Amino acid sequence: MFGLDYSWLGDPVYQRWLVDGVWVTLQLALVSSLAAVAIGLVGALGQTLRLWWLDACIELFVEIFRNTPPLLQMLFFYFTLTQIGFTVTDPVTGLQHPLLSAFVSAAISLSLFGGALCIEAFRSGLDAVPKATLEAARSLGYTRLGLFRRVQAPIAARVCLPSLTNILTNLFKTTSQASVITVPELMYAAGQVYSDTFRTLEMMLMVLLVYVTLVSLLAWALTLAERLLAYPGYGKGF
Amino acid sequence: MTARNQSLIELDGIRKSFGGNEVLKGISLNVAKGEAVCIIGPSGSGKSTILRCINGLIPIDEGFVRVGKHRVHEIRHERGMRPLRRQVAMVFQQYNLFPHRTALENVMMAPVQVLKHDPGEVRERAIALMAKVRLAGKESSYPGELSGGQQQRVAIARALAMQPEIILFDEVTAALDPETVKDVLTTIRELVEEGMTCLLVTHEMRFAREVADRVCFTDHGLIVESAPPAALFDTPQDPRTREFLSQVL
């Protein structure tokens, strides 16, 4: 059809490359998403303590990792750290290896990048809870921690779910940049295949389809969560 | 002795500034147990701030605040405020219900989570309170599904569930339409008649005249005049009170 040739898909070698690629992509996305959310929670909670030095540290972290390309961060963790001496020597062969593997470098940089975005999203969620609502909780005898747990966090979580969906879907797609530092994820596997077969268009169409499917599933799950948590009068609630 | 007189609430010479703006310039006020006191006055005269000093939501700069046996101005930590907050409930202009919880849960939350009362017992109490504020059947509605007047009555039930000795009402009908105002005022009137100590900031002059034992007129951070409603409304002594009343009555 349309002169597209998918006969190479029958080759078990290519099949294995691609399936392994999808698996690595999923692992990278899962690890960095979880770490990003964890960083976001710690950072946003840290900011509620209102300590000027902690605020300054968190702000610097956000500025650095939100405002630099994730690709640059991956290259930094993988190559630059090695160049300035972060290496391990294999005791058997005596060869020098980078301290961080390609996968770990990619996971770290995606976690930090996503984490910086999550801090901002969670902070905006906490800020969106009306001061008057918190005042009402205080007047009922809630302490700061109780108020956070019972009132502020549950409301804030609902407010920032849509931005979290944006961040996590974007993070999932950004895993493809890890191919540049030779992480054998989907994009890398695809490159391997088409440099063998020269069927670039076919390969790209297929990769596109895989990403659309996976990212749509993720977005759908998060939107479902949004709907389930919604309460009447706000957002998706009626 | 922590108390300097017999009243339940004792304010003496309270001063409070926000930035360079002095909002309270020496407020003194005593409220006896079972008394209903209305505070009236122009916007920005410090009425709401007085209420927030009583339950410690706003720390004062200078002066003396006592509620029952608690010297509010001497409590430094939010945790220390707990016994006070249990004794003094507050109802707000914008209701301030918790939007992610149903009406019944709003009423039950603090007694269970803060006072650690038995959930089963609190549930019964909350259902009875919902009936008392004429909202039986609305227990599982969310605040977003209720009208303003209904939300305000849930807020009153939420305050009552703490079994307070005092309720502070901060312009609780200001955001409501005239028809629902009546329902809320009826509920408050019943509380006053049952002997609940109430301190009300209000713009409802007729209501103040009807339910209050005493009315205080505030202007520019001071209580200008304080008298039983008939005296204050019919024969105001201070020219500022006369001017304000001539504009609102």
TrEMBL record, chain A:
InterPro entries in UniProt: AA_ABC_transptr_permease_3TM, ArtM/GltK/GlnP/TcyL/YhdX-like, MetI-like, MetI-like_sf
Biological process terms in GO annotation: amino acid transport
Gene3D superfamilies: MetI-like
Organism superkingdom: Bacteria
A single cellular component GO annotation: ATP-binding cassette (ABC) transporter complex
Domain ABC transmembrane type-1: 22-219
Main location: membrane
Membrane topology: Multi-pass membrane protein
Alphabetic keyword roster: Amino-acid transport, Cell membrane, Membrane, Transmembrane, Transmembrane helix, Transport
PROSITE patterns: ABC_TM1
Stated family: Belongs to the binding-protein-dependent transport system permease family. HisMQ subfamily.
Physiological role: Part of the binding-protein-dependent transport system for glutamine; probably responsible for the translocation of the substrate across the membrane.
Name recorded for this polypeptide: Amino acid ABC transporter permease
Protein's organism: Billgrantia endophytica
From TrEMBL, chain B:
Domain ABC transporter as annotated: residue spans: 9-245
Pfam families: ABC_tran (PF00005)
Subcellular location: Cell inner membrane
Gene3D superfamilies: P-loop containing nucleotide triphosphate hydrolases
Entry keywords, A to Z: Amino-acid transport, ATP-binding, Cell membrane, Membrane, Nucleotide-binding, Transport
Record's bilayer topology term: Peripheral membrane protein
An MF annotation (GO) of this entry: ATP binding
SMART domains in alphabetical order: AAA
InterPro entries assigned: AAA+_ATPase, ABC_ATPase_HisP-typ, ABC_transporter-like_ATP-bd, ABC_transporter-like_CS, MetN_ABC_transporter-like, P-loop_NTPase
Any GO CC annotation of this UniProt entry: plasma membrane
Domain of life: Bacteria
Similarity remark: Belongs to the ABC transporter superfamily.
UniProt name for this protein: Peptide ABC transporter ATP-binding protein
Provenance organism: Billgrantia endophytica
Organism lineage string: Bacteria, Pseudomonadati, Pseudomonadota, Gammaproteobacteria, Oceanospirillales
